[in-house]
Amino acid sequence: MTEKIVYLVDDEEAIRRSAGFMLRTSGHKVEAFASGDELLKAVRDLEPGCILLDIRMPGMDGMEVQQALNDRGIAMPVVIMTGHGDITLAVRAMKAGAVDFIEKPFEKSVLMSALEQAWQRLERSDRRAARAEEAAVRLKILTPRERDVLNGLVEGLPNKTIAYDLGISPRTVEIHRANVMAKLEVKSLSEALRIAFAAGDVEAE
Q1: What is the span of the domain harbouring residue 14?
Q2: 139: domain CATH number?
Q3: pLDDT truncated to tens, each residue of the chain (205 aa)?
Q4: What are the b/e assignments for 38-64, b being 16+ CB within 10 Å?
Q5: Among the four residues 41, 58, 89, 158, which has the most C-beta atoms within 10 Å?
Q6: End-to-end distance of the chain based on CA atoms, in angstroms?
Q7: Same domain, 80 and 136
Q8: Which one, of 151, 146, 155, lies nearest residue 181 by Cα?
Q9: Are residues 102 and 133 both part of a single domain?
């Protein structure tokens, strides 16, 4: 793939402008859409690329747009943009196949890292099975309680709810969560979730 195209979907013009500028200065081609409906009308005629999709929009929200893409068999990778407090929705989006989620306002490096994941999926989708096997192996180093905490995070539950469900304190959940991220050698929750979801592909087979 010579030119990397990003389809930017956000109802806020300021975001379309700032993220569009960020992407263009990094050498990407950008096509912006003000709504999910606009994207879906055009998507059949679009060249392969990555979709950068806001989760909260009037009309169809990001989850509905993602579902519509899945229903139509559109395999372009999706990166979700989310405001603060939308982590549960972002987790659901990842379960539905999104590559990653980034919280607004985001730094350029965070955006580029998420898009890099998307390009890798676009170019090497045949390696998913290998990644899933690797993820399953990495999860084996976790203790049963650490797996319980990770499973709670996978469900999109806040620390307090996980603590209540497991009969432990929220502080203990935080410690387990930190141990999970240290053992998996990841810096963000989305990376840990990606490993858990990939391993889930193996366990589901």
Answers
A1: 5-123
A2: 1.10.10.10
A3: 457 899 999 999 999 999 999 999 999 999 999 999 999 999 989 988 899 999 989 889 999 999 999 888 787 899 999 887 677 888 888 888 899 999 888 899 999 999 998 888 877 654 665 677 778 888 989 999 999 999 999 999 999 999 999 999 999 999 999 999 999 989 888 889 988 988 875 444 3
A4: ebbeebeeeeebbbbbbbbbeebbbbe
A5: 89
A6: 31
A7: no
A8: 146
A9: no
